[in-house]
Amino acid sequence: MEVRIAVLADFASFTADQKLNILGVFRQIYALQAPIIHPQFKVVFQLEFNSSEGGEKQIKIELVDEDGAEMLSISAKLRVESMPDGRASLINQILDFAGFTFPKFGDYDFRIVLDGITVCVIPLTVAQITASPAEE
What we know:
- The protein has 136 residues and is mainly beta.
- It has no helices and 9 strands.
- It is elongated, with a radius of gyration of 17 Å.
- 10% of the residues are buried.
């Protein structure tokens, strides 16, 4: 298995023929004060499985803060189809977050865990904007 894409984005979607569209990729968000409520973002990833890796997998998405405290955990079963001609299978995933609250400034990680093994970490920094002297 190989992680082909793993990003945070403002928007992501699939076309009618299952192409993956991603807009506004980012690694940082900014706010004046905590807690920080981010209006909307997507966790987007693409996994590639070779023909021998077909079958049912357990996938989990975790969000942890810089102290290692788990803030979120989403688990599901993932069915990977083996392609009859031996080609690799691509699995695209988009997780939508709306009005998500980050309780404090700092560094966070979205972890993609497959069958108990962390296969990818998507970092996010939530930074404070300091007011300029003219704004005070």
